[in-house]
Backbone:
C-alpha cells in the first residue's frame, strides 16, 4: 500500500513535516492493534492489521523524515558521527575522500602514503553499524516537532551529531525493531554518481569536479605534482590536462557517437537530442537516461581512457548493474559489499578529493541495504518520480495546485477500478505495448509448437520457399522445437551416435525423412495423427511481416529498421553451456509465418555473426560481449523460433577508438511488462539476475596523472578568489523537474 500526502503552501516544511504526518501515524498505530473490517467476498468481519515497512525518499527527504540532517560532514545516516569527511580548504564543500577504513585489514592500500591523503596510513576499521534500538535510545529524550510546533535546537548539532528532532515515526511501537527504516534512493545515488563521472571525464565547464579550486586542494591533500597548478610568466596559471579527461575533439566525437546511437523502443529516450556536437556537451538527460548510460554505455563511451582509469569506471558501472538486478543473491551481495570499497579507493587514486561528495560515499552502504530490503525496484524513486511528473502535468488550475492533483488522481483511480472489475464492458482496446494476451491457455488438441503467443504487425507479403535448402532448414527448426518430437529426436541421436560421436550434423539432412517414416509406421492415435501432419512439412507459400511482438519484445526486420531512430532487429540466442561461449548474436532479415495445414508458427530468418572466440569476445570486467559485425557465421542455419530469442542492440565503439573499428558491444535488453504482473508496466531497464561478482579486483598501478600530449588550460588566478557555493547547494539529489509555482517539494513514500 502506498500513501501520499500533499503538503499545501509555498514553503518546504522540512523537519516540520511531522505535523502533517501526525494523522497518518495515529492511523498506523490503530492498524498495528487491529481494526475490525468487513470482507465483502466472504461476507464476514475480520481484524485487519498493518505495519509500516520503510519509507522511500530522496536524500533531502531522508533528513526530513528520519531527523538526521543530510548536509555537511555528517550527512551519512549510516556512519553518523563516525565519519571521516572533511571540508575542502579551497573548494569549501565536504569531501568523503579516502575510504580505506572500509578495506580489509591486510589490504596494501591501507599502507599507501602517496596514493591517497599525503603521508597518511589507515589502521582503523569501518564505522560501526548502529542498530535501530541504539538510535531509539539516543533520541528518546529529544524534543518532537509535534510538541512544540517547530524544531528545537539540540545541543551539539553539527559537532557531535546531526540530529534535528525526534522523528514522529518513533511513536510507532515496532519502529525500533525495523532493520531498515528509511531507504537510500539508488536512483538518485546512481544519477549523481554518473553525473560527476560524466562531467569530469567530458570536462564540462562549470560542472566538472576537476576545476581550479579542486587542483588547489590537490596540493593540500595529495601528492600529485603532475596536476598541480603551475604559475606562468604571463601571470596566469597552467592547469595541466589530466589523463582522466577527454580533449575537446574527443568530447565532440562522443557527442556525435550519441547522435548516431540507436536503441530499441522503450529502452531509453533519444540520447541524440541531448548531445550538442558543436560544444561537446550533453544536456537534458533524465535519471533513466543516466541509469542506462551508467550501466550499459559507459565502458564503451570512455574506452579511449587509459586502462587504469577505464577499469575502475567499468567496475563501478558493473556494481550498479548488479545492485539494480531484479533478482539478488546474498552471497553475491556480500562480495559487492567488499568490492565497492576497493572500487572507490581505485577512483580515489585517480580523481581529485573534490569529486567525492556524499553521493559517492553512500554507494558503500547500498549492498548492505540490499541485503536487508531486497531488490531495489521495490525501494527506489522511479515509479514515484513518474507519478509526481504525471501529477504536475495534470494541473489545470494553478491557483489550486493541490486540488487539481487530487481531482485527477481520484479520476484515474476510478477509471482503473472500472477497467479492472468491469473489463467485459470496456470499449477501449486494452492491448499492451509489446505483447498481447489473446490466448492465455494452450489448446490440448494442438502441438506445443503451434501454441506460442505472439502477434505480427504491418502489411503481409507472400514468400515462396522454392529453395530446397531454405525449406528444409525451416522445417527442421520447427521439428526440433516441438516438445512432442523430442523423444523421436533423442532416439535418432542415439542411433547415429553409434556411427559418429557428433550426430548433430545428420539432423538437418536425415531427421525430417526419418521422423516422417517413423510416425507413418506407428499405430494411429490422436497425437500420432497430429505428428503426421507436422511431418508432412509446411506449405511452400509463407507469409512475411516486418514487425513481430513476442516475449515482451518488439522486433523489426533489418530493412524496416533502416532510417529509424530506434533499432529493434538485434537478436541473441542463449547457448547450452555456461560462460556464454556458444551464444549466437545476429540481426533479423525476415519474419516468416509458416502454415502446417490450419496451424501456424513464426520463424525469424537471421544473419548470424561469427561466434568463434576470435570474433566474439567476452569482457571479463563489464561482462559485455564484443562482436565483429562484419564477420558472418559460415554455416547455413538462418532460422530460429521467434519465442526462443531475446533482444539485443549493437553499440559500435566511438571514433576515439580507431583500432576498434568494426567492433560492437552487444547489449541485452529486458522485456517489458512481463514481471510479476499481467498488466503493462513502465519498467526501468534492469538485468534479470545479478551476475557472478569477481572475488578479486585486479588493481593496476597509477603511473601518472598528467596527459603529456596536451599542455592544458591557462586560467586566471582570480578564479581562486571567487566565493564558494553554499554547502547546502548539493548536486541534484532530489527532483529532476523544476517545481511548479515555486513550491519546494521532496518526494517520500511510505510502504506498508
Residues:
Amino acid at each position: 500500500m502506498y500513501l501520499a500526502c500533499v503538503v499545501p503552501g509555498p514553503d518546504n516544511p522540512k523537519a516540520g513535516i511531522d505535523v502533517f504526518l501526525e494523522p497518518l501515524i495515529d492511523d498506523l498505530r490503530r492498524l498495528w492493534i487491529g481494526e475490525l473490517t468487513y470482507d465483502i467476498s466472504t461476507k464476514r468481519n475480520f481484524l485487519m492489521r498493518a505495519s509500516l515497512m520503510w519509507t522511500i525518499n530522496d536524500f533531502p527527504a531522508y533528513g526530513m523524515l528520519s531527523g538526521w540532517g543530510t548536509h555537511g560532514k555528517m550527512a551519512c545516516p549510516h556512519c553518523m558521527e563516525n565519519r571521516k569527511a572533511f571540508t575542502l580548504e579551497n573548494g569549501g564543500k565536504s569531501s568523503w575522500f579516502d575510504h580505506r577504513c572500509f578495506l580489509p585489514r591486510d589490504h596494501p592500500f591501507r599502507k599507501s602514503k602517496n596514493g591517497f591523503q599525503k603521508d597518511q596510513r589507515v589502521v582503523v576499521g569501518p564505522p560501526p553499524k548502529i542498530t535501530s534500538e541504539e538510535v531509539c535510545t539516543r533520541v528518546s529524550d529529544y524534543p518532537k516537532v509535534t510538541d512544540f510546533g517547530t524544531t528545537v535546537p539540540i545541543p551539539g548539532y553539527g559537532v557531535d551529531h546531526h540530529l534535528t528532532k525526534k522523528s514522529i515515526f518513533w511513536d510507532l511501537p515496532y519502529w525500533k525493531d525495523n532493520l531498515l527504516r528509511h531507504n537510500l534512493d539508488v536512483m538518485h545515488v546512481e544519477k549523481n554518481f554518473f553525473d560527476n563521472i560524466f562531467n569530469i571525464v567530458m570536462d564540462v565547464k562549470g560542472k566538472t569536479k576537476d576545476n581550479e579550486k579542486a587542483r588547489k586542494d590537490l596540493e593540500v591533500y595529495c601528492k600529485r605534482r603532475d596536476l598541480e597548478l603551475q604559475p606562468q610568466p604571463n601571470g596566469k596559471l597552467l592547469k595541466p590536462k589530466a589523463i582522466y579527461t577527454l580533449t575537446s575533439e574527443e568530447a565532440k566525437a562522443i557527442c556525435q557517437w550519441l547522435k548516431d546511437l540507436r536503441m530499441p523502443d522503450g529502452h531509453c529516450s533519444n540520447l541524440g537530442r541531448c548531445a550538442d556536437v558543436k560544444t561537446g556537451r550533453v544536456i537534458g538527460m533524465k535519471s533513466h537516461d543516466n541509469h542506462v548510460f551508467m550501466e550499459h554505455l559507459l565502458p564503451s563511451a570512455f574506452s579511449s581512457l587509459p586502462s587504469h582509469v577505464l577499469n575502475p569506471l567499468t567496475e563501478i558501472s558493473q556494481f550498479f548493474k548488479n545492485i539494480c538486478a531484479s533478482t539478488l543473491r546474498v552471497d553475491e551481495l556480500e562480495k559487492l559489499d567488499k568490492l565497492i570499497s576497493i572500487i572507490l579507493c581505485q577512483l580515489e587514486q585517480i580523481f581529485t578529493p573534490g569529486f567525492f561528495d556524499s553521493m559517492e560515499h553512500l554507494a558503500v552502504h547500498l549492498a548492505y541495504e540490499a541485503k536487508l530490503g531486497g531488490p531495489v525496484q521495490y525501494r527506489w524513486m522511479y515509479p514515484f518520480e513518474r507519478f509526481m511528473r504525471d501529477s504536475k502535468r495534470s494541473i489545470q488550475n494553478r491557483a489550486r495546485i493541490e486540488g487539481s492533483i487530487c481531482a485527477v488522481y481520484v479520476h484515474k483511480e476510478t477509471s482503473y477500478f472500472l477497467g479492472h472489475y468491469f473489463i467485459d464492458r470496456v470499449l477501449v482496446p486494452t492491448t499492451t505495448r509489446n505483447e498481447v494476451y489473446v490466448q492465455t491457455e494452450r489448446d490440448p488438441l494442438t502441438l506445443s509448437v503451434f501454441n506460442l503467443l505472439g502477434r505480427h504487425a504491418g502489411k503481409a507479403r507472400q514468400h515462396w520457399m522454392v529453395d530446397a535448402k531454405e525449406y528444409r532448414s525451416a522445417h527442421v527448426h520447427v521439428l526440433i522445437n516441438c516438445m512432442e518430437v523430442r523423444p523421436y529426436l533423442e532416439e535418432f541421436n542415439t542411433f547415429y551416435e553409434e556411427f559418429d560421436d557428433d550426430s548433430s550434423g545428420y539432423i538437418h539432412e536425415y531427421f525430417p525423412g526419418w521422423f516422417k517414416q517413423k510416425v507413418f509406421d506407428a499405430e494411429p492415435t490422436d497425437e500420432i495423427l497430429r505428428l503426421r501432419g507436422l511431418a508432412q512439412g509446411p506449405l511452400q507459400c509463407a507469409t512475411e511481416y516486418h514487425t513481430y511482438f513476442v516475449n515482451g519484445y518488439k522486433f523489426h526486420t533489418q530493412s524496416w529498421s533502416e532510417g529509424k531512430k530506434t533499432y529493434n532487429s538485434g537478436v541473441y540466442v542463449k547457448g547450452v553451456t555456461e560462460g556464454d561461449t556458444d551464444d549466437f548474436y545476429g540481426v533479423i532479415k525476415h519474419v516468416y509465418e509458416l502454415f502446417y495445414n490450419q496451424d501456424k508458427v513464426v520463424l525469424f530468418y537471421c544473419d548470424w555473426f561469427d561466434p568463434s572466440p576470435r570474433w566474439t569476445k567476452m569482457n571479463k570486467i563489464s561482462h559485455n560481449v564484443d562482436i565483429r559485425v562484419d564477420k558472418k557465421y559460415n554455416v547455413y542455419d538462418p532460422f530460429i523460433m521467434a519465442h526462443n530469442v531475446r533482444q539485443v542492440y549493437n553499440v559500435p565503439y566511438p571514433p576515439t577508438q580507431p583500432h576498434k573499428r568494426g567492433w560492437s558491444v552487444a547489449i541485452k535488453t529486458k522485456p517489458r511488462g512481463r514481471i510479476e504482473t499481467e498488466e503493462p508496466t513502465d519498467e526501468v531497464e534492469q538485468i534479470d539476475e545479478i551476475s557472478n561478482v569477481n572475488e578479486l579486483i585486479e588493481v593496476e598501478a597509477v603511473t601518472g596523472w598528467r596527459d603529456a600530449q596536451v599542455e592544458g588550460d591557462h586560467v586566471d588566478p582570480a578564479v581562486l578568489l571567487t566565493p564558494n557555493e553554499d554547502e547546502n547547494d548539493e548536486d541534484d539529489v532530489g527532483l529532476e523537474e523544476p517545481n511548479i509555482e515555486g513550491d519546494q517539494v521532496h518526494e517520500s513514500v511510505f510502504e506498508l
